Amino acid sequence: MTFLDIRGVTKRYGVTTAVDDVTLSVAAGSRTAVVGPSGSGKTTLLRLIGGFEAPDSGQVTLNGDVLADGTAIVPAHRRSVGFVTQDGSLFPHLTVADNIGFGLDKRSPDRSQRILALMDMVELDPIMLNRRPHQLSGGQQQRVSLARALARQPKLMLLDEPFSALDTGLRENMRKAVAAVLKKAGITTILVTHDQAEALSFADQVAVMRQGKLVQAGPPRSLYLNPSDRTTASFLGDAILLPAEIGNGWIDCAFGRLVANTADRLGKAEIMLRPEQLKLVAVTEKDVMTSPDASAGYGKVVDIEFGGAVCTVMLAIMGSHGAQDGKPAAPVQIKCSAVNLPATGDHVRIEVLGEPHIFA
User: Fold this and answer.
1) In what residue span(s) does the ABC transporter domain sit (predicted)?
2) Is the pTM of this model over 0.70?
3) Whole-angstrom Cα distance, residue 107 to residue 118?
């Protein structure tokens, strides 16, 4: 069931269009990640949803209630929307308890119990109740900020790059912890991030923005394996982009003849493979020259960049596969595991797992 409905929302600042005719639906209880490079409009979209900005046109509806219809909006404090920012925005002069309870009625008899329950929800030790923000670590500050946002029992939670200031290990742990808290509370959530891995692991739905436009939205796996264009493909992770010739149920490219569901497509196209779809099998030069598999692709390792768990291998493609207009295929850069890594000068057979993605 659609819980948040954004229809044709546009926001301009002078001659700059920050959000351009964006339409997006978010299901109740789900987690959506809005991802894109800096300046793509993702934070502006979040502020429009939260009521901190008014759209120039379009409509925002939450659980059937119209929050914005063009420039006519419901103010932020009446939207039942929680908001957690990158720095947490805690009040430095207030204790942890007072920060969490800021939006709670001070006359309420169960206020203290409610604060303790919220601290337990975000896994904060009660010993921290009387500490101030400067006495907390970055992760603890974000937990306090999340607890404060949860105190108002919001229908919708907005997260604006809340983990970006944290160290890598802590960032991953916080992301998992926050996701678990919000899932348990059943709160619909929208996360804005520029981190592709964060978006793919956190969300049920990923929305990719570029230059103010929503270019693609859908389940993380679908977007990762079937991006709408080469820019989105590269943004969501390492991508190998190749020219190809499409036939009836097959694709000819630098990696050989691959089986694929080509539907009615024929002729030249561009395809995408993810690095994890490739496997390099060591062969001898004699194997390549005397008895090659006609459907397989072969290459010679011309350079290796060792990167620990993931290494970059530059392959010179051998044979006629991938040739375009009589010219040999261009060298291909492949990221692969350090396990069984070939050496410079080795010959390899390129095995492809799964089907390539064909761009429209």
Assistant:
1) 4-236
2) yes
3) 18
Tell me the two tokens of residue 301: 């390792």
What's the confidence (pLDDT) of residue 1? 66
Nearest Cα to Cα of residue 41 among 67, 14, 12: 12
Note whether 55 and 213 are within 8 A (CB): no
Is residue 48 within a helix (H) or strand (E), and if so which, with residue range?
A: helix 42-50
Q: Helix, strand or coil for residue 288?
A: helix
Q: What mean pLDDT is predicted for residues 219-244?
A: 95
Domains observed in the chain: 2-234 (3.40.50.300), 238-358 (no CATH)
Rg (CA), the chain: 25
Nearest Cα to Cα of residue 348 among 334, 358, 360: 334
Residue 91 has pLDDT above 80, yes or no: yes
Per-residue confidence (pLDDT) for residue 306, from 0 to 100: 94
In degrees, to the nearest 5, what angle opens at C-alpha 202 toward C-alphas 199 and 204? Answer: 95
